Task: inverse folding
């Protein structure tokens, strides 16, 4: 069953006067789209309004996004100053993003840096990974490490070097290791909750105001395979 975040069950990982970081659930959409479902950004605004008893509108800036079926760390800015500084930091790749993924077919190499050229298809909202540069493609790079093997699956830790549309999903699919539950990219069956086994596990960045290093880790969903991996 798909669990969606509300102001009452929101999993806040960190909050100060400038930023708030939450652990996104499978059913959450970070920003509003054509579905009309309430986005996580609105839920966080409701949470802040109630917690801090704020009159009037609450400012909240979306710094980055996660795909709807993905779980894990989402960072929001509570001030316009923090938003502009974080946007610059993410644009300049001054952040470290680490993901966990569960895949059906264990990759041949225990550790590997993958470089592909991604072409986005807006009609079906997918990205295709090509081995060589092709027209309208964008270079995508990540490094994965196999850190746990289960009976039918393997768990990978992924360091992202670029931030392309559906990058991890399309790159792992291209090497024959689609993410569990990811029907769009070659998984043989969906997950019961409609999500995929891709989790934004860690984020390391400089605080936009204090310049201190912030290191955040998000617990994986309470689910059989994730629980086996996290043990």
Result:
């Amino acid at each position: 069953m798909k669990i969606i975040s509300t102001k009452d069950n929101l999993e806040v990982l960190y909050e100060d006067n400038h930023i708030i970081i939450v652990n996104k659930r499978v059913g959450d959409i970070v920003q509003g789209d054509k579905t009309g479902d309430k986005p996580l950004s609105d839920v966080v605004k409701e949470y802040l309004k109630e917690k801090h008893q704020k009159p009037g509108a609450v400012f909240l800036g979306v710094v980055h996004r996660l795909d709807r079926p993905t779980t894990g760390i989402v960072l929001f800015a509570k001030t316009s100053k923090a938003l502009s500084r974080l946007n610059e930091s993410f644009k300049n790749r001054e952040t470290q993003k680490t993901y966990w993924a569960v895949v059906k077919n264990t990759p041949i190499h225990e550790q590997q840096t993958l470089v592909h050229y991604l072409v986005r298809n807006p009609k079906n909202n997918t990205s295709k990974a090509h081995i060589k540069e092709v027209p309208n493609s964008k270079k995508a790079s990540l490094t994965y490490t196999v850190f746990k093997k289960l009976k039918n699956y393997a768990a990978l830790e992924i360091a992202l070097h670029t931030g392309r549309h559906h990058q991890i999903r399309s790159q792992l699919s291209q090497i024959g290791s689609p993410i569990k539950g990811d029907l769009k990219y070659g998984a043989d069956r969906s997950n019961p909750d409609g999500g995929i086994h891709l989790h934004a596990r860690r984020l390391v960045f400089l605080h936009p105001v204090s310049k201190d290093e912030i290191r955040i880790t998000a617990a994986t969903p309470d689910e059989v395979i994730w629980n086996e991996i996290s043990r």
